[in-house]
Amino acid sequence: MAEKMALAKAINESLRRALDADPKVVVMGEDVGKLGGVFRVTDGLQKDFGESRVIDTPLAESGIVGTAIGLALRGYRPVVEIQFDGFVFPAYDQIVTQLAKMHARALGKVKMPVVVRIPYGGGIGAVEHHSESPEALFAHVAGLKIVSPSNASDAYWMMQQAVQSDDPVIFFEPKRRYWDKGEVDTEAIPGPLHKAKVVREGTDLTLAAYGPMVKLCQEVADAAAEEGRNLEVLDLRSVSPIDFDAVQASVEKTRRLVVVHEAPVFFGSGAEIAARITERCFYHLEAPVLRVGGYHAPYPPARLEESYLPDLDRVLDAVDRSLAY
């Protein structure tokens, strides 16, 4: 039976299921226990599973991830929370130097089943270091899987698959979508973790996005439909690896592509998608692949973030430019 729940609640239920199913699963992070996390994503878990399974850690991101690596070496499956996106950088060394490399360094003999949860992105009026989108920094590092759900159902099932993965997974949670509700069937059979999904069929142009921007792209498609344009919306779901086959299949049908993400366009994930699809679909494309994202500037104060983040008009402008070719 499907149940309607918010994206944050879906992650909570998924973690609860993982903790219940495997005594080697532990949840760690700043304020994840008694408080239940600043967004209440882990609410009630420590009460039900105890302080040895849901652990309130010191304010030390490098220590949190380093401890998780040690636990993974001993057969545990740690799920660690980085309280906000901008707080991950003290742990960057542990993630890219140790976590991402351990499997290769051990010639495949050592698994690293660690999930690093990162609430990311803007749209909530937060202060500095609380609204960033650093996914491209991690996608560049071999050995890490990078995913980001856009809805409650994917959040539930992708977290299940991330916890079960023997490879480290960086799980980017779109904080502005935490309270968006959707149907979640906890008895469904999920598709592959890194498989993209067409969430709206179309024929004139493909909008590709992940995480917080998928909903925006659906709104753009609705607005474009009022002008007689039929846009396809592709939820990438995964940033590393990227399901290029799904993007290619969509572009071969629509012949145009606009990639949308909150992170800065400069050296962003959209650049890799644009380059790959240009190589794969050169004779199908009727316009260059366009990108819409944040600016190459520090994230602004909250009162200016609406001017920084991609919005309906900026994406529609890219659609108009693509269709004008």
From TrEMBL:
Protein's name according to its UniProt entry: 3-methyl-2-oxobutanoate dehydrogenase (2-methylpropanoyl-transferring)
EC category: oxidoreductase
Domain of life: Bacteria
Cytoplasm as UniProt keyword: no
Stretches assigned to the Transketolase-like pyrimidine-binding domain: 5-180
EC number(s) on file: 1.2.4.4
One GO MF term: oxidoreductase activity
UniProt keywords, alphabetically: Oxidoreductase
Required cofactor(s): thiamine diphosphate
Keyword Oxidoreductase: yes
